[in-house]
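can u pls check wat happens w/ nicotinamide-adenine-dinucleotide
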Amino acid sequence: MAGKSPLGVGLIGCGMIGQVHAAGLGQLVEDGDVRAVAAADLSEEARNNANRNARGFARLHEDAQAVIDDPEVEAVLISSPTATHRDLLLAVLEAGKPVLCEKPLAPTFPVVREMHDAVVASGVAAQVGFHSRFHFLFNKMRDLVQSGELGAPMGYVLREDQYWPTGDVVPGHSSWRSDRKQAGGGALLEHTIHGADVASWLFGPARQVFGRTRSLFGYDVEDVAAATVEHESGVIGTFVTVFNGVRGREERRLEVFFERGAVELTADFVVGAPEDGLMIQRPDEPAEHVDLDALRAAHWKTLGLTRTDVLFYLYLGARAWVQSVRAGTAPSPSFGDALAAHALVEAAYRSAASGDPVTLDGDLSLP
Ligand SMILES: NC(=O)c1ccc[n+]([C@@H]2O[C@H](COP(=O)([O-])OP(=O)(O)OC[C@H]3O[C@@H](n4cnc5c(N)ncnc54)[C@H](O)[C@@H]3O)[C@@H](O)[C@H]2O)c1
């Protein structure tokens, strides 16, 4: 962004995804958008890894508050474990600094609402780490929904699965994801909060949810969940999410049925993933298998992105956040968007516990 000095960014949490964020911040430094001012992690090894990936933060700390208090840190990216987000977010809001907080916002819905309300009350510019919104395939699906080209969306099937992401299964991985107190939930909250956000983004907020969960691997969070969702728009759909035992597997698939079309989207989290695919079936025509490279290039052109070395959509999310902070515009996806996604997931959990469908109020409060 010409004519403005780069934004001083601080990173809190340098674990698995913090290191990916650090690499993205390093690219944003190269782009002239960011100064990598400070990073914090309890682990020295994690700090050093993030520092290497970012190609140098000016300062490294054990204490997150040192990042928040650093006068050269103008905006803070929180990528520590979910249970730490609340206190860190409130401290960043107290400092009045723009923030990007990773998903899920918190292990429990009341804390999510508290965080949402605190952001709104503070007036601080705040974004949530729903990076699927920066994936060219989901953007194409949104264009198809919004343009009406295939008629109205009728229903959808969304399936997400991933190899069980916890240290007991994956050597070297941290283990908080399989502990309910720290994670709040399993496949549905930790992973499919992304799918809940995508569905809310495409079809509007959920009105009623019926859910079921199972825990086959023996942890106290679910590794399988299914939900039937009715959106306020009338669109209905089903979710299936799985933390599986199939090493090497990770995929998100969304099939949307329109009045005059069927669209099958398959995606993964890395740019250029072999899983990626998009099929559009129109009436009386052969199915179109969309040229992915051309579609991605066209989308990135609209973003003014010239880099050819982007590996993760997280970079695009952080880039959008930095650009909106520097431009003084509201970052998106917002904490209001996150509240909608969390409300859908919470309704599924409550339904699974009670055996009855759960209806959401218009203001996303839950009974
Ligand atoms: N947007 C996405 O697609 C995406 C992907 C993966 C993870 N996440 C989310 O990002 C968060 C982090 O996940 P992860 O897989 O990197 O976890 P992780 O366990 O690999 O890393 C977390 C790091 O935070 C550090 N930490 C803990 N408490 C801290 C504190 N108070 N101050 C500073 N550092 C602290 C830990 O030492 C660790 O290095 C989670 O909320 C997770 O759900 C989002």
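The first strand starts at residue 7 and ends at 12.
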